[in-house]
């Protein structure tokens, strides 16, 4: 049982297929940074899993990074988890310490339990408000339970287009 599973109790993982690759696309337009460079130890030390950080460039929409089902949409609107058909869970966590804003600066577009495709809109955000009120707008995109996969590789790119640019490849 991994850290995320223990922390949030979302542990109903199904049998994960053992072969193939899964491509994760950027949920935002922005600059891509290594997860170790995210200014938050929970993410930088990969306590929740491996991934990347995205520094958004402007207001817009946070999109689904993968095809799947939204298994968790935080009440504070700042984070969500999408689970693929074969059990890969991807956390998108907008900004750092944005939970303290209690949903201000965010507007939910979809709901928990919805089936989504990579690039589908999930949450609208007000960049200017969040830039002024959050500790950071850097958005970690993390593959949860990474120890279950052969490899979780962050792609070496500098900028990403939401819903299009592949930022992470998972080898199962």
TrEMBL record:
GO terms for cellular component: cytoplasm. Residues 40-145 form the PTS EIIA type-1 domain. Keywords: Kinase, Phosphotransferase system, Sugar transport, Transferase, Transport. It holds the Pfam family PTS_EIIA_1. The keyword Manganese does not apply. It is found in: Cytoplasm. One of its GO terms (molecular function) is kinase activity. It comes from the Bacteria. InterPro entries: Dup_hybrid_motif, PTS_EIIA_1_perm, PTS_EIIA_component. GO terms for biological process: phosphoenolpyruvate-dependent sugar phosphotransferase system. Signal peptide: none annotated. This is PTS glucose transporter subunit IIA. It comes from Streptobacillus felis.
């Amino acid at each position: 049982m991994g850290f995320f599973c223990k922390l949030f109790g979302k542990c109903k993982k199904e049998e994960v297929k053992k072969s193939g690759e899964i491509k994760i696309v950027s949920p935002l337009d922005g600059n891509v940074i290594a997860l170790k460079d995210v200014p938050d130890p929970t993410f930088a030390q990969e306590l929740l899993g491996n991934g990347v950080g995205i520094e958004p460039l402007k207001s817009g929409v946070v999109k689904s990074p993968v095809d799947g089902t939204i298994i968790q949409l935080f009440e504070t609107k700042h984070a969500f988890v999408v689970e693929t058909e074969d059990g890969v869970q991807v956390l998108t966590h907008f900004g750092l310490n944005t939970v303290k804003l209690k949903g201000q600066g965010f507007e939910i577009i979809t709901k928990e339990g919805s089936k989504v495709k990579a690039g589908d809109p999930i949450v609208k955000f007000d960049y200017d408000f969040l830039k002024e009120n959050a500790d950071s707008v850097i958005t970690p995109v993390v593959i949860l339970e990474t120890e279950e996969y052969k490899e979780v590789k962050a792609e070496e790119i500098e900028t990403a287009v939401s819903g299009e640019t592949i930022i992470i490849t998972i080898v199962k």
